[in-house]
Amino acid sequence: MSVLETRYLGLDLRSPLVASPSPATGKLDTLMRLDDAGIGAVVLPSLFEEEVEAETMTFAERMQEGAGVSGEAADYFPDVDLDHLGLDRHVRLVEEAVARLEAPVIASVNGRSAGGWVEYARILQDAGARAIELNMYDLAVDPDRSSAQVEEGYLALVRQVRAAVEVPVAVKLSPYFSSLANFARSAVLAGADGLVLFNRFYQPDVDLETLDVTPRLELSHPGEVRLPLRWIAILRPQLPGASLALTSGVASGEDLAKGLLAGADVVMTAAELLRRGPERAGDLLASLQEWMDAEEYLSVDQLRGSLAQHAVSDPGAFERAQYHRVLSSWRR
Predict the structure, then answer these.
(1) 268-308 pLDDT, tens digit each
(2) What three-state secondary structure class fits 245?
(3) Which residue, 199, 194, 139, 159, is CA-closest to 175?
(4) Whether residue 55 has pLDDT greater than 90
(5) Both ends of the chain: CA-CA distance in Å?
(6) At 244, which helix (H) or strand (E)?
(7) Interior CA angle at 124 toward 279 and 115, to 5°?
(8) Ordered domains of the chain (ranges, CATH)
(9) Over the stretch 86-95, which tens digit does the pLDDT of each residue have?
């Protein structure tokens, strides 16, 4: 039977399937079910700096309502448990997950200020997180900031967090860079131990009845796996020492196999776990193992990167060479 063990961010994992941030990784009960299903690692929901600030501010304002109206009432305020607030909630989840799970626990951070990125990364590390994932979910909308300035801001954050924590650091990227290969290499040189490809930017919608701009969540679908698959294959030979994680559109054991063949160290999924439940992780791993046994692969190490760009007979297949062929393949 083939061996599913792998390494990601210097961590030894029992399998190459990782649960990426979602409501499925936000509750201890679900995390334990993922652990029982054989998940390699879990990435907890992102700690958003503005969410923490907003929750804390709202709580403080509510506590001040009516203050001073009656001096006698001040004696009746109960002791308040603040564990429900953003920061404490994230810290508690890290601590509980680390204590209960066999799989390594990775914390995710999305900051708004340089100090926020660093502070929260350090706090989550101290709570027991085995690695930190920097969730760079941000839109560059200021016309006075050049692409070079935006990218340097990202790289400065990577350097600052890398200098502040001792655990490995992964950077979750979007595909929206003019020269993704250049930025990926720069992120690794800035201190990133690994890259996660790709972040999904959720787009707002317009409600025609209320004329409001409203959020709309649409889970990824299987076709989306081809974008990170392509870039994993391209970056694998360029970044041989960095960990690479593929995410977006992973819905089957075949998708796991493709990601590993392209050069990923791990393959992440969230949508499939939300649709089918935590136990789906076990099905995906069983399917991967069945395929590996049929193809006579002895281990994940053996198959990893065997279809990366440098290893295939036609490296241009991952670039423009197949563009016309794809367009002309359409049949009604």
Answers:
(1) 999 999 999 999 999 999 999 999 999 999 999 999 999 99
(2) strand
(3) 199
(4) no
(5) 43
(6) strand 243-246
(7) 135
(8) 6-327 (3.20.20.70)
(9) 799 999 999 9
